[in-house]
Recover the amino acids of this structure.
């Protein structure tokens, strides 16, 4: 028994000794790793003056805590055999890449840019676009090191050095095209002095002029700041209306941010298939903001955060990314709500599901309409998306329809149910999901850019040349009352010969109520064989 106890004591002592020894070895290894490191001998390829001997790199660590912006960037999740050229291609469009150190055992790298502004532009860009090497995503963030000190002062220059090394330039173009998900690789890029230079140009515009087309939902300073701050620090924003169009000016501190934002946001939708941005470079050198308010904001002032905008619209949402039918502001305008509308105060003597389908179809694709059997002045209308339901509510609520003012709210139902077999319905429920009359069947249709509030003026299109003004006047008078005005619309780029151009026209009726009735009655009206009239509300309130 005494021998057993002694043996156990010796075993316990040995275990404790080796455990402490392992902790000391681990601590020593970690300390060594934070000191002087030597990069691999193949850190940079040997192409003329781009060749380098092995570098002795000392990592200058910043204070512990939250990582502040730095010109040294940390690249993670690299492919095991990633090259320095591929890593450098990620930084080349944003400025001079000074040094690269690949940590192959960790599948990581450190990349040092020439200045902090270039590093900031790079990080902001890849926060928005996922970088990838050979189709695999890589992640870039600020390093907690402030610089990479080497024994040689050399680096990779994205403009000067690359231009003198065609092979290196082609490799970086191909790598960069891959990292941005562009088809065609280097051949499609057109060279760094071509399309890539237009995407990220250090000498690009610092002030962008934004024009919003098809603005269905309000666009606030907060919305613009959320979108444009993804590409750099926004200094100032000024909004204004010109020619009945909402416009804005956005100022960046550098041209790289401005050119990147313009390249990625021009032509994008802020909200679902509407609020399309057209972006041009402004000739202004700086923006002047006299006072911070709901129309303009200087974000460099201490009081810039003290101005709060009205939250009544409910359009604020995080910035998820660019492109796709959802636009830049996911969940905007009730995007997470119901696609079903509850409409009350209908004229039950005059309104049928078909009339409701035509009117609400001006603002979206109506899927189903159900007039309540026991309350025939109320209906449920199912649109394709919650955004379309919100659009229809915004434009048609309190509009007079067959003598009664519509009251429209969002329903708690997520869809409109069809009647069961044998259930009495009297034709009050209709499924229009397969209707050929949907105005928004095709993505990118011009109909998205021509959505306007009800007004006395309606726009006519698809008119054959054989149809006369007198015929159209008489047809609309029968359903909408007296005609106040009529005008043919010439086609763009052609002479205004009215005899040759009668495909579109404007008609002004006596009131908005009459125009609504005329639109419902005349839309898809057969003019001649296989030619049907298209009617929508016009942008103009009068002729």
């Amino acid at each position: 028994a005494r021998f057993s106890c002694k043996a156990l004591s010796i075993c316990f002592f040995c275990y404790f000794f080796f455990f402490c020894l392992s902790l000391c070895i681990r601590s020593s290894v970690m300390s060594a790793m934070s000191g002087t490191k030597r990069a691999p001998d193949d850190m940079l390829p040997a192409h003329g003056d781009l060749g380098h001997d092995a570098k002795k790199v000392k990592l200058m660590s910043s204070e512990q805590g939250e990582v502040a912006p730095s010109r040294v960037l940390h690249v993670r999740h690299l492919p095991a055999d990633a090259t320095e050229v591929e890593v450098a291609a990620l930084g080349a469009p944003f400025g001079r890449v000074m040094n690269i150190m690949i940590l192959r055992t960790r599948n990581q790298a450190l990349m040092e840019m020439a200045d902090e502004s270039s590093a900031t532009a790079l990080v902001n860009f890849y926060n928005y676009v996922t970088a990838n090497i050979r189709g695999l995503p890589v992640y870039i963030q600020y390093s907690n090191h402030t610089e990479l000190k080497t024994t040689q002062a050399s680096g990779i220059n994205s403009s000067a050095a690359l231009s003198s090394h065609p092979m290196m330039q082609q490799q970086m173009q191909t790598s960069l095209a891959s990292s941005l998900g562009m088809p065609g690789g280097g051949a499609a890029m057109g060279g760094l002095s071509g399309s890539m230079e237009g995407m990220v140009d250090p000498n690009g515009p610092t002030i962008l002029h934004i024009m919003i087309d098809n603005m269905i939902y309000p666009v606030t300073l907060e919305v613009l700041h959320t979108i444009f701050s993804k590409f750099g620090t926004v200094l100032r924003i000024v909004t204004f209306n010109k020619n009945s169009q909402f416009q804005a000016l956005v100022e960046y501190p550098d041209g790289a941010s401005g050119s990147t934002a313009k390249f990625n946001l021009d032509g994008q939708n802020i909200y679902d298939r509407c609020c399309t941005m057209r972006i041009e470079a402004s000739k202004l050198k700086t923006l002047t903001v006299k006072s911070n308010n709901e129309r303009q904001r200087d974000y460099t002032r201490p009081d810039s955060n003290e101005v709060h905008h009205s939250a009544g619209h409910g359009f604020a949402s995080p910035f998820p990314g660019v492109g796709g039918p959802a636009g830049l502001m996911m969940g905007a305008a009730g995007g997470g709500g119901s696609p079903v509308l509850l409409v009350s105060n209908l004229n039950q003597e005059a309104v049928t599901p078909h009339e409701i389908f035509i009117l609400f179809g001006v603002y979206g694709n109506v899927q189903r309409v159900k007039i309540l059997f026991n309350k025939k002045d109320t209906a449920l209308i199912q649109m394709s998306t919650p955004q379309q339901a919100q659009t229809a509510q915004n434009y048609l609520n309190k509009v007079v329809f067959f003598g009664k003012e519509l009251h429209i709210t969002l329903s708690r139902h997520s869809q409109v149910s069809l009647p069961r077999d044998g259930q009495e319905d009297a034709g009050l429920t209709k499924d229009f999901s397969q209707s050929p009359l949907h105005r928004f069947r095709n993505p990118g249709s011009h109909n998205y850019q021509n959505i306007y509030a009800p007004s006395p003026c309606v726009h006519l299109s698809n008119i054959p040349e054989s149809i006369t003004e007198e015929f159209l006047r008489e047809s609309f008078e029968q359903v909408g009352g007296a005609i106040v005005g009529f005008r043919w619309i010439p086609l763009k780029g052609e002479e205004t010969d009215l005899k040759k151009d009668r495909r579109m026209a404007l008609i002004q009726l006596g009131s908005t109520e009459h125009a609504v009735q005329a639109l419902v009655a005349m839309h898809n009206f057969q003019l001649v064989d296989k030619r049907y009239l298209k009617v929508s509300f016009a942008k103009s309130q009068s002729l």
About this structure: Residues 31-65, 151-198, 306-326, 330-335 have pLDDT under 50 and may be disordered. The first strand starts at residue 36 and ends at 38.
